[in-house]
Specification:
Layout: H1 2-23, H2 32-45, H3 55-59, H4 63-71
Length: 94
């Protein structure tokens, strides 16, 4: 009876691990344009030359460069900014 309970618990744990692994966010590969932009930003703002931009280095970035990173999808969360809604759409509907 103990063997059956241990087997059932082991199967449940294994199933939970498989489900969790499938739900994990997948890292996407950077495009050549994104890689080039990151290299440019590192060369320009990485003052301590550690190969990454820390908080103080990101704070020193110009708004234009922050916008470039956001447009390329390289900001925290890797979300591209939403396009502004069109203002010339007819109001009302039908």
């Amino acid at each position: 009876m103990k063997k059956l309970i241990i087997l059932a618990v082991a199967l449940c744990c294994a199933s939970a691990l498989v489900v969790q692994a499938q739900d994990a966010p997948k890292k996407h590969k950077l495009t050549p344009e994104q890689k080039q932009l990151m290299a440019d930003m590192l060369a320009k703002y990485d003052t301590n030359k550690d190969g990454k931009l820390d908080k103080s280095e990101r704070a020193a970035m110009s708004q234009e460069d922050k916008d470039k990173l956001a447009a390329a999808g390289l900001t925290h969360g890797n979300k591209k900014p939403e396009a502004a809604p069109s203002t010339n759409a007819p109001a009302g509907g039908n």
